[in-house]
């Protein structure tokens, strides 16, 4: 009779028949093994919201890894386990991936640090989660199949359209939840519950203690929702930007950002765009440059600030900038609203050199410094439209070769 619960209908609607039947089967195996097993996290929320979700997260009150191995024994497939975390991924014969973990409690030795874990029960496992809407579980043991555990009124918050943390220290324990809160609020068009908003506001300074890697990763997830501009505004209302970068994005910055993220949708670039313009922008952004490409970008942008191309011809701009990467020039042009630089960049990208290395070799030149110098000169002449045809280029090359000292 339990199977007539409305949530079971929603599960049936949203899961493939195969997956639904697999869950029934897993429930039976859990019964045999005398463990309680639950679907958990985003998928439970999404059944209720009737939104598609394929991520099957299962928790067992018992040994998650042993249970995954039991599934493999009875149903085939493969298990990859992480002993340290008590987690396993079971890949079925049909290549479905299911995550299976041991119910656990997390406890924090220090605010914003990574948590310690120990095995526990389902209630404890739900209690360590981020928001009420993400803290529901659906039991799938045979007799309780589809029994919803909702200790924290997640269903009610779905009705109320609220993102609500489970306890007052939540954001202090893990300040990245502030960014997660904004992510779910924007995805579902919910609001942060009043108290949750206040606690987020108070916890924002803690974000400075979160590693750049974690912060960028969480921001990347946010950015994947394609709501970056709203997210930036929302995070601004929480004071995140003034805390991290001593700067609030104004209307101008937002306009730039909307252009830049289309070409460069990386969270580092978003941070950079927000931080840019103040005297110490490179100092505040530096901790977030985790890959050499981003470090180089900072160095090149600093160099760009010393170059003035206002009254220069395209060729003399090319002389100064040919070693700068396209994306740095693009970014700098957008950040400083430099139309001339954008034009140069566009021309440079469209430039097709009229001579190739092979043409030079045919004229008896050997690859080396002269070689690349000649190609650079040709690029300059083409940018200034002094040379426009292959014939002109060949004639120019012949004169050049004649001028070269014989060796
Ligand atoms: P999505 O729909 O984006 O996959 P999700 O709810 O499945 O969202 P995940 O980031 O995949 O989110 O995390 C799975 C579950 O783990 C969440 O539903 C939440 O219960 C819990 N969780 C993840 N990150 C945290 C965190 N920083 N603090 C507390 N709980 C978290």
TrEMBL record:
It comes from the Bacteria. Belongs to the tRNA nucleotidyltransferase/poly(A) polymerase family. This is tRNA nucleotidyltransferase. It comes from Halalkalibacter wakoensis JCM 9140. The chain holds residues 431 to 837 of 837 of the full protein.
